[in-house]
Amino acid sequence: MATNTDCTTTAGTPALGPEPEAATRNACKLCAPLGAAMVFKGIRGCLPFLHGSQGCATYIRRYMISHFREPVDIASSSFSEDDAIFGGARNFELGIENVISQYQPELIGVATTCLSETIGDHMLGMIKTYQDNHQAEGPPLVHVSTPAYSGTHSDGYFATTLAIVKKFALPSNFRLSHRVNIIPAMMSCADLRHIRELCERYGLSSTLLPDYNATLEGGSWDAYHRISPGGTSLEEIEEMGASTATLELSHSQANVKQSAGSYLKSACGVPLHSLGWPIGIRLSDQLFTSLSEISGREMPSEIADERARLVDAYVDAHKYVSGKTAALYGEPDFVIGMAAFLSEIGVRPILCATGSKTPQWKELLHNEIEGGMADVEALAGVDHAKLASRARERKPDLLIGSSKGYPLARELGIPLLRCGFPIHDRIGGQRQLYVGYRGTQQIFDRVVNAFLEAKQEYSKTGYSYL
Amino acid sequence: MNTVTTGDSIHVLDDRAAQVWTKGSSKEFACDRKSTAGAVTQRACAFCGSRVVLYPIADALHIVHGPIGCAVYNWDIRGALSSGPQLHRNSFSTDLAEKEVIFGGEKKLKASLIELIEFYKPKAAFVYSTCIVGLIGDDVEAICKQVTQMTGIDCIPVDSPGFKGTKKSGYQAACEAAYKLVGTAKTDGIKKHSINLMGEFNIAGEAWMIRKYFERIGVQVVATITGDGRVDDLRRCHGASLNLVQCSGSMTHLSKLLEDKHGIPMKRVSFFGFEDTAQALYDTAEHFGDSEMMDKAEALVREEIAKYAPRIKAYKKQLKGKKAALYVGGAFKAFSLVLALRALGMQTVLAGTQTGNAEDYEQLKEICDPGTVIVDDSNPLELAKFVLEKDVDLFIGGVKERPIAYKLGVAFCDHNHERKIPLAGFEGMLHFADEVARSVLSPVWKFAPRRSLHMKTNLNPGND
């Protein structure tokens, strides 16, 4: 006998009936402590520590390992029932001691979970007590509040960059004239490396916060490293207050109360260039303009050549993509950058979705989409079920986002371009380049080829020459 | 200091010293403890335990009551397949926000359940309580009762706040929840020679393979619990006359309930490796005291082994003398792995589990070779330490263990619930041999720095 659930797809929605609204179905977001762990992984010698039940740390480790395929050690205070009732101070102290003994970290990044937030554990007090008891020996501890019931992993990510500059960046009377601060959105390891390289091309040295390019995509080891090598050093972070400028590569941070970049501006007087995730020619142009302004140099010829080749590629392939439609989802900054890029090559981003509820996200998105928003649905704070239901109706030609869109792509019979986080059913998500002309070139080729492949695949005759 | 370390420079935390043991030493061995704070345990929490046990029940609605993290991290991450409905592959959550944490999440849970049941028409619903719910004290049981009355669909609370004990406590909560369905349907049509396959999660379709073996020897499988699970099968599984328990960590409690309240005896079995699979079939035939069944079992074993043995023999030649480390969830899996590796000519030098108990470890100690290190509730540093000290050629574990092996140039075989290759049964043994061989015998290891210490000088001649 057929059951009612037999018509359920792996995306989880039967063909008929009013859509449930109360529950979240297949969330398009992760929790704030994951974002915190990402940032802590980008600091040299730092071990992330989640204050709460150990499941949070284990889940987040597992999730990050499936994307990065690197060791991701995250400690936990391993709450038991007693700790949930009487407070986690005892376990916190023991946990920190054990972490120091095992990992010998240069910094411990302490993030809260929903459990420790709800019982009201006073982290700053506990950190102070710990340090008083240990005569302030051992590595510094930095704390960020990341309850999973408010915000998403993006929020946790940026809250952590802010907490770090607040704690370590020192105001300075002089400027390091060739040093820039970069606050990237949750980009790939390849993006972080490329941004550093681009700064160097303009004669600038850069401090990236975070910089997990090596810790989350490192080499093979000849001996065991307790903490993966790489990351931004504490000395560099201290000096962020003396840099000549900060580039914040996140649309969403421009609209929050306080960001790492705005703090460095207000507290340390570092000029802020508030930019977006530089995907596509226009957003990349903005990045290069800022780098020119800061360095006083013209665009290096190698970069100008990359831009020229990219324009040439846009022209060569424009007919293959023009008039096509795409649905995209992911972190709020990623979606804006990607939508800007798609709209400038003539692909309509008809469904733009994020699980976050970033302030004014729709307006920010609107500003970056060429050709207006008339046919663009901007869905903030949505889950994959809602996205799937809209996609069934709008029938995009292409889906762009994390591996989590696979069931939908399979159901709709359209290609999925795996971008962002997490990519756990393909290899190489962490070294996919998105930023600058070079990254745009790569993602452009992938977009065009996805359309060509689909056309070829689904044609009756099977074209061999397109 | 962020130092480069070798195996002997990593120490075991004092708190954990008794959980690391070497065969041949007279030291006491401890297990069944809470994880030590800051030890970076590979274990998850009680919530995770309950979720992984019940999740493969494919026609039930599984909703996680709490903030979003707990639900989203286990959205369709495991390889438990269903032959029909796919509802279990979704991630449903009440996704509690700040105001609900303050004022309570009961309303949202109720609304969520009613809507989801209306929309998906599940056979039953499981409601998992997370840390927050354990704390703010939502009366999940009352909500479940109300919704059951309103919808006619059994809503079953799973009492699994993450901090409540260990992963094992979560297994127990899951068994309690599953047991609520047992005995609620008629047992018509169940034959005398019938079993439940318990602690079988149908990873990559393994339950289907095992089920076929039993059908071939004339045994009816009433329920596979919980892989390819169905609510209606659970309702009538008390009609089976024997429980075969594979993953004892997860299912012992349910099988005990079935034994105590319905008089169904249990047998611990394993379907990993030729020996254990054959033994499981023989044990079953012996239990039923049916000589015809035993003949069929013997014929089946002969036939199956004949099919796969030659290719395994070929692998054995190539793998002989290699050393393996294994760190897995449950102990029963570890026993089978030691034997299966031995069948491939390999030696186990490190064996550990997340959730083994004293009895399990006694058995593990017995089957291991002298010098084997046995660890309970280990962590990445300890595992790396022994990989280096024992100079292993292969690591067997799950996603979290994989990078430990790969970073150090060591082959790896995924043997947890996320894999997509069936390793059970006779056919599975071939897959296992194939999987191990493809990694251990891969030519890539010669590039791994630890295996090619002279590479640096070779690449930079003159730079001695």
UniProtKB/TrEMBL annotation, chain B:
Pathway it works in: Cofactor biosynthesis; Fe-Mo cofactor biosynthesis
InterPro entries membership: Nase/OxRdtase_comp1, Nase_comp1_CS, NifE, NifE-like
Statement: the UniProt record of this protein carries the keyword Repressor: no
Protein name (Swiss-Prot/TrEMBL): Nitrogenase iron-molybdenum cofactor biosynthesis protein NifE
A Pfam family of this chain: Oxidored_nitro
Domain Nitrogenase/oxidoreductase component: start-end pairs: 45-440
Record-linked PROSITE patterns: NITROGENASE_1_1, NITROGENASE_1_2
NCBIfam families the record matches: nifE
Function: This protein may play a role in the biosynthesis of the prosthetic group of nitrogenase (FeMo cofactor).
Family: Belongs to the NifD/NifK/NifE/NifN family.
UniProt keyword list: Nitrogen fixation
Superkingdom of this protein's organism: Bacteria
UniProt cross-references to SUPFAM superfamilies, sorted A to Z: Helical backbone' metal receptor
